[in-house]
Structure formats: C-alpha cells, structure tokens
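2024-03-11 09:14:02 DEBUG pipeline.ingest accepted 1 chain
2024-03-11 09:14:02 DEBUG pipeline.ingest length=97
2024-03-11 09:14:03 DEBUG pipeline.predict start
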Amino acid sequence: MTTNTKKQDRKKINHRHFLMAVVAGIVAVGLVMGCAGTGTAATPPVEPAPDPPDPAATGRIVQADNELGFRLFKELFTGEPEKNLFINSQNTTMKLF
C-alpha cells in the first residue's frame, strides 16, 4: 500500500467519524430541545371525574336496545333459512339518536 493510499484511507475514516459526530450532535440537540419545556404554558385545571352511570338506567337502555333488535329482526326476517341475516341494533339505536 502506498503512502498516498494510506492518507486517503485516513481521510475517509476521519470524514466518517466527523459525519457521525455531527449527526449524533444534531440528534442530541433535537432531543434536548424537544424535551425542554418553555415554562410559559399554564397547566390546565384538573376536572373531577364524572359520576358513574346509574346501573338501573343502564339496564333499561340495554333492555330497550335488545327489544329494538328483536323487533327489527322480526320485521326484516323473511323466513328464508338459507340466507343469513345480521343486524347491529346498537348501530341502529345510535343512528336514531
């Protein structure tokens, strides 16, 4: 290997190390800047958790939704056992409200 080739190899290695150091520095600065808070943003007030739903009311809603599904099934079912019929009564209820 000639002296000129060795110098070129060292330059390539030094250039790679330099580029890696620059990229690592940019990444480090980006992480620090992204994690650093400005301190000027106000902290939003914490709202209390909503009250849990009434179990009796929830039961009535579920029962009404089921009744709607069965009534809808009876209306749409034509008595053809070879065909499948799928009804999403919850989706239908949501569309009504």
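2024-03-11 09:14:41 DEBUG pipeline.report The mean pLDDT is 77.
2024-03-11 09:14:41 DEBUG pipeline.predict end
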